[in-house]
Each structure stands twice: as C-alpha cells, then as structure tokens.
Amino acid sequence: MTDRESALGNRIGDAIILAAGFGTRMRPLTGTIPKSLLPVAGVPVLEIAAARLLRSGARRLHVNLHHLGDSIRRFADGRDWPIVFHDEQPRILDTGGGIGKMAAALSGEGPILLHNGDVVTSIPYEGALGFHREHGALLTIILMRAGGDDRTPPGAVSVDADGIVTGIGRGPSAGAGAPAFGYTGLAVIEPAALEYFPRSGPEGLVPVLRRMIRERPGSVAGFDASAGADRPHWGEIGTPASYIAIHRRILVEKTAFDPLIPSPPLPLRVDGAARVDPGAVWRGFLDVGPGAVIEPGTEMEECVVLGGSTVRSGARLRAAVVFPGGVMKGE
Predict the structure, then answer these.
(1) What secondary structure, in 3-state letters, does the chain show?
(2) Hey, what CATH topology would domain 264-329 get?
(3) Residue 1 pLDDT exceeds 80
C-alpha cells in the first residue's frame, strides 16, 4: 500500500506545515532567507514538505507565517499548490498557538498531517496513520529511537509498552524511565484534538500534549518510525552544522531523503546557472546554487554555496555555508 492509498483510506483533507519560526540558530543567514526556503541539494525544504504531504493524500496545505512571511508567499505563488496561509501578527504564536489559530479553517474531514518546516525525512505517513487508527488516539506523534546524533531527534518522549505517550521531557511529567524517543516534527492529529489548542496567544506543542495526557490519558500515542528493518532517514536544519551534515549525507553517503532530492553520482552538485572556475579546488563534497560564482584560486572542503553567492579568489573554506551576506562555519 502506498502513502497516498493509505492516506485516502483515512479521508485526509488537510495538512499543516509549520513555517513561522525565526531560525535563530541559523542567523545571520535566516535574517534574509526563512529557514523553510533554505535549499537542500537545490530544493527548498518547503517544496520537499509540500510535495510529500500531497503525495500522502493531503488535499489542502495550511502554512503558518511570521518571520519573512512575504518571501514564503512569493515562493508559493509560483507553485500549483492548494495552499492556505495563516499570518501570525503581531507576535509569533509557537506551534500550539499557531495550530490553534488555524483550527477554524481546517476541514475536519479526517486526520490532519503535521510537518515541521525545517525537517527532511523519508519517514512515510502510512505506518503512523494505521497505528493512529488502531489506537483510537486523538493525536499521534511520530518518533524515532534517539541515537545521540543529528540523524535522530533528541530523546525527550516516554512511551509505554502499548505505544501511549506517558510524558515529554525530563522530570515529574516524563513518567517512569528516561525518555528513549525523539519527536521527528511529524504528527497525525484528529480534528477533535484541536479543542486542546489555544485559540489566541502563544503556546508550545509540549504544554498542549501534556494537557492532553493529563486530562485524557491515552489520547496521545507515539509511533516509532525507526522500528523494523528499514530504518528511515531524518534530518533537521537547526544549525549550520546540521545543514552541512544533511548535504554530506546526500552527496557523499547517497542518502535518499526524498524523490525530489536525488543524489548525484559524484559528491558534487553544481546548478546549471552557477559558474565554477576550473582552477577552484574542492574536497569532500561541494553544493553550489544558482547564480553562484566561485573564482580561481579558491579551496573548499565540505561546503554549501547558496545561490547568488561569490567565493573570492584566495578563499580557504572548510565546513562552511556561503550566502550572499557572508559565511557561516559549521564546526
């Protein structure tokens, strides 16, 4: 069964992409480019997320906006997407508040798919949808067993033997035992769960989930996407180091995150509109975006050069993200 067949069987109408954040750990780059529009091997994260949600059966996309929201609107104008934007002004509402604000616009026709706007992953929604249905959950968060590296989310979720979330974070609210699972930024939400989300004012997702766990035990389930023989791939654009690491996995390790971002034969991807001088030296891997210029006499190792950037003659860069406003080190 494909994602789309499973999703249609569950009458999915809506999906949510969270794209309002400031991307503070990626500043100053995210001062001019919203994190959801950062390209992964040439494809913006928002485009990757939208495509996989539509493949999974979503008939309408809801995207929250705050920081550089006009840039996201302009980008989406060039795509044939069934999309609704939800502006969070004058202040950002965080995940819980953002979902609550858009609740009235959601169709209520079936489970709602949720996807963080800074995550790339090969995790299919199919298994989580079946698990969600079998458990009769109001909300199912998609988890991976924490591995202590940037290939899995950090451990923060406690789950019992039946797959019910008993706590999030450490301390009294976490339940018994140390959290072994990390939240991937993906979830399945029943329309009935929206009553727990605030309709005004900011609130994070964790307080919402803790309220659900407290007031309606068993309502929040945790699906372990890392179980089984085929361990899925996951990455988050949280820092320059994690952004570079995702490109290393695609270009060097040939990790298949999504059909939109195939791995080239060599650990090198140069956009057709870029200019790389034959005298430039690169090692490890190199990703070069449209309109970028790399001058002679440069040396780069494990670098991502975003569109419109220039690497001047004599530059020596290692583990760096180059953008039109400067360079960010990923070490």
Answers:
(1) CCHHHHHHHCCCCEEEEECCCCCHHHCCHHHCCCHHHCEECCEEHHHHHHHHHHHCCCCEEEEEECCCHHHHHHHHHCCCCCEEEEECCCCCCHHHHHHHHHHHHCCCCCCEEEEECCEEECCCCHHHHHHHHHHCCCEEEEEEECCCCCCCCCCCEEECCCCEEEEECCCHHHCCCCCCEEEEEEEEECHHHHHHCCCCCCCCHHHHHHHHHHHCCCCEEEEECCCCCCCCCEEECCCHHHHHHHHHHHHCCCCCCCCCCCCCCCCEEECCCCEECCCCEEEEEEEECCCCEECCCCEEEEEEECCCCEECCCCEEEEEEEECCEEEECC
(2) UDP N-Acetylglucosamine Acyltransferase; domain 1 (2.160.10)
(3) no
Separation between Cα atoms, residue 324 and residue 327, nearest integer Å: 8
pTM (2 decimals)? 0.93
Per the structure block, which two tokens stand in for 68?
Answer: 């550089």
With contact defined as beta carbons under 8 Å apart, do 13 and 57 qualify? no
- Domain map of the chain by residue range? 3-236, 264-329
Q: What is the CATH number of domain 3-236?
A: 3.90.550.10
Residues 158/46/10/212 CA torsion (nearest 10 deg): 30
Tens-place pLDDT, residues 165-208? 999 985 444 445 556 899 999 999 999 999 999 998 999 999 99
Residue 99: Cβ-neighbour burial (10 angstroms; 0-12, 13-18, 19+): buried
Mean pLDDT, residues 115-134: 96
Q: How far apart are CA 309 and CA 293, in angstroms?
A: 6
